[in-house]
Amino acid sequence: MKKYTLFLPLLLLPFILSSQAKYDSVSVLLLDRMSNVLGELTSCNFTLRTMVDEQDVNGSTITHFRNHSVSMAGPDKMTVDTYNEKGHHQYWYDGTVLNYYSHKENNFVTIPAPPTIISAIDSIHKNYEIEFPAADLFYPSLTDDLIENFDVISYAGRAVINEKPVFHIMAQSAYMELQLWISDDSYNLPYKYMIIDKESPERLRYEATFLKWELNPDIPESIFRFIPPPGAKEIKILSVNDIQKQPE
Fold first, then answer.
1. Distance between CA atoms of 37 and 221, rounded to whole angstroms?
2. pTM assigned to the model
3. Which DSSP string do the residues of 78-95 spell out, in sequence order?
4. Are the CB atoms for 85 and 93 separated by under 8 Å?
5. CB under 8 Å to 93, separation ≥6 — which residues?
6. What is the SS3 assignment for 128?
7. Which CATH superfamily is domain 10-243 in?
8. Measured at the alpha carbon of residue 214, what is the angle toward residues 212 and 218, in degrees to the nearest 5?
9. Mean pLDDT score across all residues of the chain
């Protein structure tokens, strides 16, 4: 992963803010610092609570709430355990395949995957449109990606959320707004972020809050291997290309 060295203490960051810059130095340093810390982790556990706005068939906005428990180890191991109003489902990735299991339906899917978490997320999202919670923040190219996709990135100052001191960063483009809160402590881990769709009249949003971080825990490799429960049925899912090839 991309590495950065920060020689400037975070306490001095507000004093180097350039009011003329579209991508101010405070925000860039904080983003790089967060990416550096995430990139140097050998493993982690965290809980993620998400809120997602969607429109129903009548045009009303409905907010869906989801809880995710995530574990990652090295470059090639990940599990995601998700609860939402539709039930309980899990993902297991072991460096060769991704398995998805629905507890409600008692069925599972096995998808061949590239040999790293980031490449697997990219491939599976592209080919099957499966999204992984908060995946964007773990890309080593995060800062460059934000600069490429947003017109302005600014430092909005310090804040306190649920008694947690945080740094507040905002990014704006013509079609999207991103707000990111990074913990104001030695680790500078992501605490919360929000994406707002400015093109929708309802300004639909996605919001995620990180809780219960565990850094570099000793995670048994066995938890990344999927074992089908008794009676579970393997099913197939079509890729985006397969769907496009189907006759109308």
1. 23
2. 0.86
3. EEEEEEETTEEEEEEE-S
4. no
5. 76, 77, 78, 79, 99, 113, 117, 120, 224
6. helix
7. Lipoprotein localisation LolA/LolB/LppX (2.50.20.10)
8. 145
9. 89
Give me the helix-helix angle, 142-149 and 25-40, nearest 10°: 140
Q: What is the pLDDT of residues 10-47, one digit of tens each?
A: 444 444 444 444 999 999 999 999 999 999 999 999 99
Whether the CB-CB separation of 34 and 2 falls below 8 Å is answered with no
Token pair 């099913």 in the structure block, residue: 235
Q: How is residue 120 written in tokens?
A: 């697997």
- Domain boundaries defined on the chain: 10-243
Q: Which residue has the higher pLDDT, 122 or 247?
A: 122
Give the CA distances from residue 238 to residues 90, 106, 107, 108, 245, in Å, rounded to whole numbers and listed in that order. 19, 19, 15, 14, 10
| Phi-psi domain of 87 (left: phi exceeds 0; alpha: psi -120 through 50; beta: other) | left
- The token pair that represents 76 in the structure block: 């090639």
Residue among 73, 106, 105 nearest 92 (CA): 73
State both tokens at 201: 């009249």
CA gap 165, 158 in Å, rounded: 7
Token pair of 209 as six digits: 């809050």
As a whole number of angstroms, the distance between CA 82 and CA 72 comes to 15
CA angle 92, 95, 97 (to 5 degrees): 55
Instruction: Tell me the residue ranges of DSSP E strands in the chain.
Output: 43-55, 61-73, 77-84, 87-93, 97-102, 107-112, 152-161, 164-172, 176-183, 190-197, 205-215, 233-234
